[in-house]
Write a structure and sequence with these properties.
The protein is mainly alpha-helical. It contains 7 helices and no strands. The protein has helices at residues 5-14, 16-32, 41-89, 92-106, 110-132, 135-168, 175-211. Helix 3 (41-89) runs antiparallel to helix 7 (175-211). The longest helix has 49 residues, at 41-89. The two termini are 39 Å apart.
């Protein structure tokens, strides 16, 4: 243990050379430990607490993304499971007109905004986890983004949306519309199956990322 200032002053009077050596040791120890002792346990708890809070924020974000993607996938599943089959069984003109109205109405809802927002949030969140956290969580969030982009976002942009636009430009009672509807109902539903499975896999990846934290 380093001598106190009072002990040094006494040593200077009695033994000046020994006091000088003690003072040098004292100065070296002070330089190595500017606080004069090890950090208190409370400081370690504060640092651990800050790290825990940061991890908690990422866990909550993963949980929100899990629910977010699951809700989008639930809408897709409804179309794959019964909406498209019901429209296909209806009279051709009625099914075409109903689908046209659905496609026009969905553009003004939060559903489309959710799909587009996820395409931006998922890669940014994966990059943040890679830089700030690393480990299993970063791998799972990158996997989630890698699944969502091709299976949901790109399929929507380059598959379902162009088909919707083409259908919207046809008169429901025309021969061309009836011919295209036979192709549309089958192909659009198949692409929608991919989107549903993609959302399910993405949601599972985010859930596992949330569970990967201790």
């Amino acid at each position: 243990m380093a001598p106190s200032a009072q002990n040094l002053s006494r040593m200077v009077k009695n033994r000046p050379f020994k006091a000088l050596g003690s003072a040098r040791r004292f100065s070296h120890e002070a330089a190595d430990d500017p606080f004069g002792k090890e950090p208190p346990p409370d400081a370690c708890k504060v640092r651990a607490g800050r790290q825990s809070v940061t991890h908690h924020w990422i866990v909550y974000a993963c949980m929100v993304l899990t629910i977010w993607v699951a809700l989008v996938g639930g809408v897709f599943k409804a179309f794959s499971e019964f909406i498209m089959s019901a429209l296909d069984r209806a009279a051709t003109e009625c099914g075409i007109e109903a689908m046209q109205q659905i496609n026009r109405s969905v553009l003004r809802t939060e559903f489309v905004a959710a799909i587009v927002a996820l395409s931006v949030v998922s890669p940014l969140f994966a990059a943040y986890c890679f830089l700030a956290v690393g480990g299993t969580a970063s791998v799972l969030t990158a996997l989630a983004s890698g699944i969502y982009w091709p299976s949901v976002f790109l399929v929507t942009v380059f598959g379902n949306v162009p088909m919707n636009k083409r259908l919207d430009g046809l008169a429901p009672g025309s021969a061309e519309a009836r011919k295209y509807w036979a192709i549309y109902a089958r192909r659009w539903t198949l692409l929608n199956h991919w989107r549903t499975v993609g959302c399910l896999a993405t949601s599972i990846a985010y859930a596992l990322a949330a569970l990967s934290f201790p």
